[in-house]
Amino acid sequence: MVRSEVNINMAERFPHWPAGDVALATKLFFEILSEALIEEQRIELRGFGTFEVRKRSAKTARNPRTRKQVEVGVRGRVHFRAGRNMRKVVDASKSKFPIKKIKETRPSREEA
């Protein structure tokens, strides 16, 4: 789902809100979340999940094109952990819509 689809869903649920207000509300919501993550705050949305920034330590990596070693500094990444209610909803939907395994089209290593 993309932001425009969120706006459409919000507009359907709040038909008395002008479309501009719906778009502004979703934009502000994501801006507030982004600003909190930039400040390395933990965001907890009860029943949905938590977002937090976790640090990746500095390391020596390799540029795949030139094969030269490159130093990569400490970086942050956003980690999401689903809340209990969200996990229950997703797990319940798996029983309604089971995930089908895709058959492998390439021969396995043993067959080749």
UniProtKB/TrEMBL annotation:
Q: InterPro entries annotated for this entry? A: Hist_DNA-bd, IHF-like_DNA-bd_dom_sf
Coiled-coil annotated spans: none
> One Pfam family from the UniProt entry?
Bac_DNA_binding
What SMART domains does the record point to?
A: BHL
Tell me which UniProt keywords the record has, alphabetically: DNA-binding
**SUPFAM superfamilies in the cross-refs:** IHF-like DNA-binding proteins (SSF47729)
Give the UniProt family note.
Answer: Belongs to the bacterial histone-like protein family.
**By what name is this protein known?**
Integration host factor subunit beta
Write down the species: Candidatus Comchoanobacter bicostacola
Species classification: Bacteria, Pseudomonadati, Pseudomonadota, Gammaproteobacteria, Candidatus Comchoanobacterales
